[in-house]
Amino acid sequence: MNADVFAEWLRRQGFDVIRSENSYWFNQGPRVYQAFPYHWVISPSEDEIIQLLRANNLLGVRYSTPYSAQLGRASYHAVYEGSNYTLESLGKSARKNIRRGLQNCTVELIDFELLARDGWKLQQDTLSRQGRETGLTKKRWESLTHSANQLSGFEAWGAFVGLNLAASVITFQMSDWVYMLYQQCHRDYLSAHVNNALSFTVTHEIMKRKNIRSILYGLHSLDAPPSVDEFKFRMGYIAKPVRQRVVFHPLIVPSVNHFTQNLVKLARKIQPGWSSLAKLEGMIRFYMEGNLPLSRQTQPIENPEFNKLFINKP
Length: 314
What we know:
alpha+beta; 2 domains; 11-stranded mixed β-sheet; Aminopeptidase; 11 strands
């Protein structure tokens, strides 16, 4: 249950995986690579990054680096790091919604064949509801679910209303961390609070296991609406401050500017279904903000504790 298993999952889906001195990388977009494991907060040298870009003919890379670093977009990881996770540890509103959800559904481990078959409709509806363009197709959905089958550390969880799969999530254990991946819920069941029941049950059951230290519920996204992470924070997760650094190939750095960003925004309006444009616009935005002092960057979330740390930085 380590980075090599996660790398194998990505390779089975057709992704290219590269190893550098400090991290693994995979092609999250055309010639754009994301660092993993996702919870690693790394400090690669400039030489390592430039060599990675040049040797592999990449346009850019993205990785998480310490909040104390000199460069990078002020950002966060949504994590749970407590020793115990119970209803009593959550706020009044969260407890009420979880109880309602548990009354309306049952949450259990499911097999990946069922998730491949019945989860696609949930994934489609979730992306549509959030207004996101990821380029995820039914074929790719089946590939990522089937690829996880029988790989050590992967599990699928589902919330059922009667016999219907209403919400689901994939989890992966990497050492003493667990990742929550691809959570989705059909809008028909949102009012039944099945997402709350699913998130609570999975977190509660995982944190009861021996040798589990933390759960990563996701990185600060390039393109997801704030409501996605607001749900996680209501469920007891916290925003752990990091910087997300985007580095472009030296040859294209001169062309990465506000004019280019506005062109990409215009292209998104003309081609709203082109998922790569949404990621590219996010990469450019993170890159430009990441080169500014923290005091001039946009606050990543409206959270008093996070913002206290944010505004105290130069």
